[in-house]
Structures are given as C-alpha cells and as structure tokens.
Amino acid sequence: MDTGTDKAGWSGAGWARLAIGLIQGVVLYGLHQAMQAKAWPATEPALFEALVCAWAFTPIVLLGGLGDMRRVTLAVWAVVATALSVVMAMHYVLREGTGTGVQYPHGGAGLFAAAVIFIGHHLVQGADTARRPIAPYPVYFDAAWKHGVQLALAGAFTGVFWLVLLLGAALFKLIGLDFLEKLIREEWFAVPGTTVAFAAAVHLTDVKAGVIRGVRTVALTLLSWLMPLMGLIAVGFLAALPFTGLKLLWATGHAAALVLAAAAVLIILLNAAYQDGEDAKTPTVLKWAGRVTALAVAPLVAIAAYGVWLRVGQYGLTPERVIASACALVGACYAVGYAIAALKPGAWLKPLEATNVATAFVAIGVLIALFTPLADPARIAVADQVRRLEAGKIAPDKFDFGFLRFDGAKWGRAELERLKAHATGPNAKVISEKAAEALKLEYRYQRDEQRPRFDAARITVWPKGRTLPESFVKQAWDAGDGWSPCIQGGDRSCDAFFADLDADGTEEVLLSPGYQLNVYRLTDGRWKKAGDLNAGGCSGVLEALKAGQFKATEPKWKDLEVNGQHLRLQADGCEPMPEVKTAK
C-alpha cells in the first residue's frame, strides 16, 4: 500500500509540471492581450479559437501523463490531443461562415473537446500501462478515477490559492499597504499564477498517491450508496408510467433530456458501486440493487429515444434533436450492455466492464463526428428541414426561416440563398419570397416580433368545453400586441384559462407555456398583452388552474407611486394562497 511518501519531490516531473504551468499561463496571457487589443492572432477567429483550446488542454494532458505514460506514448498522444482540439475548435468558428458577426468565440468547443480528450487520455494511458491495445478493466478504472479526483482537488486548491491571496491583500490594506492587491489585479500575474498553482496541485496530488486513493475511496463509497435510492426512483417512475401515460411526459417539451439525464446518473452510480470489479468487497444489498438498477437503464433510454423519434417525426430535425439522438445512441450502448450484465449469471455485472470500454470508443467517435463537419448537427438539421419544406410536409407560413438564417450556421444561409433563387416544390414562389426576407433579418427574432404566428391547435383551453374568443383566434398579430411563446409559434403546447383580473366585466385570456401566465386583455377591439403572472417554482399551480381552483383577488402589497409611475412588488418565492374556490 502507498504510504504517501514523496516519490518524486520537486525534481524531474515536479519542475517539469511547474514549467508547463508557467508556459501555459504566459501563452494564455498573451492570447488574452491579443484579444483585448484586437491584434493578431485574435483577428483570425478560427486560428484564435484553435490556439486557445490547444493551450487550454494540451498542457493538462502533459501534466496528467508525466510519470504515468512512457515519454514516446505521451508525446504522440499530446500531438493527437492537440490536433483534435484544434480541429474541433476551428470547426466551431468556420461552421458559422462569414459575415455573421462572430468575434472571439473562444470556449465554444471547449467542453466537448475536453470530454474527448479526457476519455481518450485514459484509453491511451490504459493501453500504454498494459502494453496492449485493450487493457484490463481495473487499469482503466484506476487511471480515470484517479485523474478525476486529481482535477477536482487541483481546481479546489487553485480556488483556495486565490482566496489566500485575496485575504492577504485585505490584511495588508488594513495597514495602508496595497501592493499585494495591485499585484493580484494584474493580468500578467493572475493568468500565469493560476496555471502554475494548478500545475503544482496536480504534482502534489500525484506525489501523495495515498491521499488520492483515500479521497477516491470515500467518494465512491458515498456515491455507491446513492445507487439503490436512484434505482428505486427509476423503478418507481417506470412502474407509474402505465397508469399516468406518456402524454404528460411529452407535454413538458424536455422529457427526453431529463430521462436521459436520469439514465446517465444511474450509469455513474452503478460504476461507483462496481468500481474495479472486485466482487468480494461489494455488499450483498448493493449487488441486488445493482442488478435492478442496471435493468432500469434500458427502458429509460428507450423512452427518451422514443420521445426524440416522435418529435423528429412531427417537426423534423433540429440541432438539439440531432444531439439528443446521438446521446440516445450512446445511451443505447450502455443500456444493452448493462441489461446483459444484470441478467447474466456468475460474477456480479461482469459484462459492465466490456460495455464501458466499448462505449467509451463509441462516445469519442460520436463527439468527434458531431463537432466536426462529419455530422455537424446544424448541417443535418438544415438538410432535413429544407427537405420537409420543399416536399410540402410543412407550409411556408409555418416554417421557421429564422432557424436557417441564425441557427443553421453556414449551411442554413447557403440554403436560404438557394431557396431564394431556385426553390422547388408546390410553394416555390412563397418559399423564395420568405427566404429572401429571412436573409435580410439582422437578429434571430426580428421577423417573429414583426409578424407573430398563432396556432390555436397548440392551445388546450380550460375548463373543458370552453373555447378561445373568435376575435382572439382570428386576430392578425403584430409586434405591438406583445410576445408569448404561445403566440409566436414553434412546437410548444400551451394551456389557456380565463379570469377578469382588472374587474372591468371582460375576462382576460391567460396563456401558460408551463412556467408563467401571459395575460392578454381586449383593448379597443384588439387583444394585447397586459403582462405576466410568474409561477416559476410554485408547486401545483398548473394543476389547480386546470381544476378551476383559482380566483382574482386584491393584491397583498400596494404599489409604490413614484413620479406618476407605479412600481409593483415582484414577490420573492411563492406566497401562501387564501382558501381556493372554484371559479364561476
């Protein structure tokens, strides 16, 4: 067992790590200064993005690989990791094309490049340690969780490092000395200081391997005992679905993402319980809970995939649905493997090991495809939406040309140019006109604000049997009538209620997209938005509204009149309601 003694000190790897941290900080400071001065390379957004990503991630690869990989392997992997981050970063900028106002978008591809590099690093390190392409599972487990804990501790150390400096600056300032305060405000100190502190923390945690192992053990133990709870929640959710149906699930508009997130949490907690696969150290209760939980992953992923498939069938692909489909694909790999692991007799969840390794390769492939030209979500979504438009599956007045202009990257704008000049299909002339109009837009919702769209088929009216006023449905909406997701269009389902909030004898229409009530009142023969009733965070509001359990009441707080204007209190939280009565 590691005694926690210093295995390297500050010679060799220690000084190398400090040097890497210092060089990284100096280069990042230089890039920041170039951005501030709008000088080269910041004048070339694609190059600038690539440099920022490369210098953000490659040094961390070197910090983590020193002492854990052979030098040749680490050098080759560092080159590959740099190339991946550069390609993904440059694509993030170049996909927008020219003339879009993109300036200094550094960080846009960072999260996904970091995921690819983290997964790839441990596949490479495992292979290097085992001296074979696919290492034994405990090697992957040990490396991935060790570096995960190291990164967390190094981040915490860096944060405390700055808290200590701030405290020191405050102490010196008490006696009239502000040199430390001025120093830490200087960017030439702050950027390299941060990277050096992070590098030092990585080395210190690497030297004290016993500390890392202890923290990891505690973290995994705590997480593993959350697995039965999350498994119980998942099983209870699945058991309730036959009685509640899926309609309520789809009405939220984000069910697929939430269900996939639940499946991801199950996978993480299962792995925390499984650890390196040493069957003997796993309590019996966790083994039984683990088999049940592993089986629950499959139906959750299936529900999410079905939800995405329904949306795609109804409304076509969007970049978000392409990404959701990719997540469902990765989730399906886990789901199949974990179901086999749960049902297979013998060593507890043994097939989980092969599933995790194989899915890691799948995840890397999917991420690289999504964030390179291979399968860019915008390119795929644009092609699908334009195909639907020209095939007549969606009417031109229902089609979101603004999506092509602002969310379809360079492919969307190219399609607008093509549609403007060479639209095909039964509505070619109208499509051409709307494409030309969209190309003139300066910002995303400009046209929506000018010419809102209303689709009564998306609105469920309460109480049952009532309908929206004919004047409301047939009104030609414009920007001056006020914005609501229920008016502007899209695929969001909304609910409508009625209440006379201004006591003038005419009921207002209350539209709910799910998180608030948009209030519309009839003024001079025209429906206009009066304001919003915010219900975010208040439980049971929508259900009570649907049941008719509401009434108009006098406000609890008076307005404050200032200079002839009324300032109205926005309540912090949900105030207790008076006894509810059914509205008549």
What does this structure look like?
The protein folds into 4 domains: 13-218, no CATH class; 225-370, no CATH class; 377-444, no CATH class; 456-567, no CATH class. It is α+β, with helices and mostly antiparallel strands and 584 residues long. The radius of gyration is 29 Å and the shape is globular. 62% of the residues lie in helices and 6% in strands. A hairpin with an 8-residue loop joins strand 2 and strand 3. Helix 5 crosses helix 8 (209-224), helix 13 packs antiparallel against helix 14 and helix 16 (401-407) crosses helix 17. The chain contains 22 helices and 7 strands.
- Tally of individual domains: 4
- Per DSSP, the total helix count is 22
Written as H for each helix and E for each strand, in order along the chain, the element string is HHHHHHHHHHHHHHHHHHHEHHEEEEHEE
pLDDT under 50 segments (min length 5)? 1-6, 99-106, 448-452, 577-584
Tell me roughly what share of residues is in helical segments.
55-70%
Structural class by SSE content? alpha+beta
Outline: globular
Query: Proportion of β residues?
Result: 5-15%
Biggest β-sheet, characterized?
5 strands, mixed
